[in-house]
């Protein structure tokens, strides 16, 4: 079996964590004995290229990405580039262009990991964040820009089609897990989008009578996230709320150094993308001090997505073992990757 | 001196906590010896009235509210009323109609109060949440409603005028506090609104050269809120982000039972409104188990706004003393109010 993977480290610590993610993935495949070959193709995106060429990710590249089986991404964004240019020109362009309907973000407090919460309890849920619409479309604009009469709008676009894809995926995950789905919005204020979400959840829910559904306002959800995160099994929410809640969820489960994600094309019409949820962290880039665990776990998500369940499981087990024995000793980014790879046998 | 106060308990626990807020306020005025008289006018709003009359808050009432010096509000919202009807018909109607540009939300971890964080450190910041625009305007709509082709939009409206009012207030507060202002947005994605915010902060900041300004994405801010809330002095942000972040801030400082807020008309053209940030909590309403502390502290914010600094300080001191000695003994809502009132002397 040959899988073609597009590799895109991007900016900052993306360049340090992606090699570790790949190192562990390759080793896990080797050890599994499965006849799997990875064919890696590098894509160079990010600040340096932008400064040299003015390009972020071209339409041709987006087209060419379609021929791969998956994309392994690092991070993008740099203070030398105007805010939003790389984010929208690279990662959002792929999420939208390749139909990444579901931004899947597991949140688990692993044994041995310290949560900032005094009594974290058992935290083990997944967030299904809608990935292709909401406040992320760039719709809107500004009139009388830079005058005291300026008006700037930002339009959240929500479609039955887009919301249903994410909601259906979330119900299916809840059905396969503990049969609890929490949908999060702010439908007492954002009535147009909120009521669409509500109607979709009600409709799709009829197909999953075993799944218990409850609703929380986003603001209330942040409270429970720190007082009672055990309550969650599967959370489904829109793009913006999901962005916010998954960073918070990562924080309560020990930090964004550990949080992996998959941007899934649920119809299988284009490759899915796997990335740590952390950003490029320019403040600590180039020092080999970034934690590559999130990238390594993203590798496991990718393996699972490609049907390599044994490989995925082996990576997770190795990561859990490493986490359980971390004792505060400082290790370089590569040393963490080496240690986890070594545990694979 | 006579102050005319509109009293609006609203729904659920609003009816239980507002009397305690007033009880403590009256006692604090009495004890202060200041020649202050409160003239209270009741306004009945909420689910019951809505069911009886179909009304939320009429335009005539909104007009009549203008003649008061301040509004003391409880909460609104009830499961028997479609989501959003009471929230938008009552509290948002006042915030918008009376120009409550600044939604002020202090966050302080009081001595004796347990935070869900293992090492909360010293938490003492205020959030200046813009109160009259952003995603709260109700702009947007839905086409092909309830069909697979539905599109629902929610338009965040941001004006230089509205943003500047909030930002200027925040800078002034930072100047009077520890001279640190964090402005929070998501300008790498919501570029139209985000860049307006950024330009306003840069412009107004020129008038406050002593205030150190830094920017955080909303998602990153939720992380710091649980890992390092000590970093904040004054936070300024938009209506929706502010809603989310202040519930989280309330949670890390011991719960929304303690969090007070002021909806301030900064130009003095209409009365300001003071309310707990918690909602009507229908699940615990009518049982006299709600914590009235947030309403009592809202009374202190109102006193301070009316120029009664001694009264405000006395209430805060009494609340701090009560909090420091809470030992888990169950007290009714009224007993907490009585205990705090008794501490005033
Ligand atoms: C980089 C940025 C555009 C992105 C987002 O907001 O989705 C990031 O925060 C994430 O969560 O993946
Ligand atoms: C009741 C609701 C409309 C309100 C809001 O979203 O502003 C509440 O959550 C608050 O924070 O005061």
From TrEMBL, chains A, B:
Q: Which organism is it from?
A: Brevibacterium iodinum ATCC 49514
Class of the enzyme per the UniProt entry, highest EC level: oxidoreductase
Under Gene3D superfamilies, the record lists: Isopropylmalate Dehydrogenase
Task: Enumerate the spans annotated as Isopropylmalate dehydrogenase-like domain.
Answer: 4-340
Q: Which GO terms describe its molecular function?
A: 3-isopropylmalate dehydrogenase activity; magnesium ion binding; NAD binding
Protein name, UniProt field: 3-isopropylmalate dehydrogenase
- Keywords associated with the record: Manganese, Metal-binding, NAD, Oxidoreductase
The record, for InterPro entries, names:
ICDH/IPMDH, IsoCit/isopropylmalate_DH_CS, IsoPropMal-DH-like_dom
**Per the entry, which co-factors are needed?**
Mg(2+); Mn(2+)
- What does the record give as EC number? 1.1.1.85
């Amino acid at each position: 079996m040959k899988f073609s993977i597009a590799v895109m480290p991007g900016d900052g610590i993306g360049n340090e964590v992606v090699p570790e993610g790949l190192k562990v993935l390759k080793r896990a495949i080797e050890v599994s004995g499965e006849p799997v070959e990875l064919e890696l193709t590098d894509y160079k995106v990010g600040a340096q290229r932008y400064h040299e060429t003015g390009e972020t990710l071209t339409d041709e590249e987006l087209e060419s990405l379609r021929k791969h089986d998956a994309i392994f991404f690092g991070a993008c964004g740099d203070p030398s580039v105007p805010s939003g240019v790389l984010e929208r020109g690279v990662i959002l362009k792929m999420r939208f262009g390749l139909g990444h309907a579901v931004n899947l973000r597991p949140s688990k407090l692993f044994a041995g990991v310290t949560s900032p919460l005094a009594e974290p309890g058992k935290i083990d849920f997944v967030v299904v964040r809608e990935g292709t619409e909401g406040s992320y479309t760039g719709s809107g604009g500004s009139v009388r820009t830079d005058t005291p009469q300026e008006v700037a709008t930002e339009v959240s676009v929500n479609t039955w089609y887009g919301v249903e894809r994410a909601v259906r995926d979330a119900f299916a995950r809840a059905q396969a897990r503990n049969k609890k789905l929490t949908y999060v919005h702010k439908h007492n204020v954002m009535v147009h989008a909120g009521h669409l979400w509500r109607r979709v959840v009600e409709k799709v829910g009829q197909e999953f009578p075993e799944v218990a559904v409850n609703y929380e306002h986003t603001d209330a959800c942040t409270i429970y996230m720190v007082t009672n995160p055990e309550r969650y099994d599967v959370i489904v929410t829109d793009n913006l709320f999901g962005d916010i809640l998954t960073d918070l969820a990562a924080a309560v489960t020990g930090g964004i150094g550990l949080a992996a994600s998959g941007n899934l094309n649920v119809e299988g019409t284009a490759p899915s993308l796997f990335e740590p949820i952390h950003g490029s962290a320019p403040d600590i880039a180039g020092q080999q001090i970034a934690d590559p665990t999130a990238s390594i776990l993203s590798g496991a998500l990718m393996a699972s997505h490609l049907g390599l369940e044994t490989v995925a499981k082996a990576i997770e087990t190795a990561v859990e073992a490493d986490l359980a024995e971390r004792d505060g000793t400082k290790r370089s980014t590569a040393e963490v990757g080496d240690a986890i790879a070594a545990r694979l046998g």
